[in-house]
Design a protein that fits this description.
about 160 residues, alpha+beta, Elongation Factor Tu (Ef-tu), domain 3, 7-stranded antiparallel beta sheet, 3 helices
Length: about 160
């Protein structure tokens, strides 16, 4: 086994054809007067991985393998991505699946398919910050419509005193 995404195993000898990783860094651009803009590092982007696969009837059922990928992606779940040597790369979601039929028989049955899947890193920090933001929003909603106290003066009372 070369790698595993959730319960899907990728075998190097059979259908794994390549892995491409992408790491990006996010910078804000600030305009300046009569000078070039300044850049400010604001954080890392989520990592992306592209996996190239070849499915052929000599070693698998291409239609079944593509369906397995699509069914897994349709669950919209973060999946552990582990290399065959045991290195844990983190959790990823499937963001895209593209496939090209390369060979069929006379009846249209699939013989060979090339598939590319794109993964995006799933950060648990995102979930924690979303939950925290949601709690803060709920607290604000509870306090936003407080009744004025009896000692608070209305605008009419303030004008009359002046």
């Amino acid at each position: 086994m070369f790698a595993q995404l959730g319960t899907i195993k990728f075998d190097l000898i059979t259908y794994f054809n390549g892995l491409e990783e992408s790491k990006k860094y996010n910078f804000a651009e600030h305009a300046t007067i009569d000078k070039k803009p300044k850049l400010q590092f604001i954080g890392d982007e989520l990592d992306e991985i592209s996996i190239n696969l070849n499915f052929h009837t000599n070693f698998c059922n291409p239609k079944t393998e593509i369906k397995k990928l699509k069914d897994t992606a349709a669950k919209h779940e973060a999946l552990s991505f582990i290399l065959g040597n045991g290195d844990y790369l983190g959790k990823y979601v499937i963001t895209e699946i593209s496939s090209t039929t390369e060979q069929c028989d006379k009846q249209g049955n699939l013989i060979a398919i090339r598939a590319d899947i794109k993964l995006k890193e799933w950060s648990d920090e995102n979930v924690k910050s979303q939950k925290k933001a949601k709690k803060q929003t709920i607290k604000k909603k509870k306090t936003a419509f407080k009744q004025p106290s009896k000692t608070a003066k209305t605008p009419k009372q303030i004008v009359r005193q002046g």
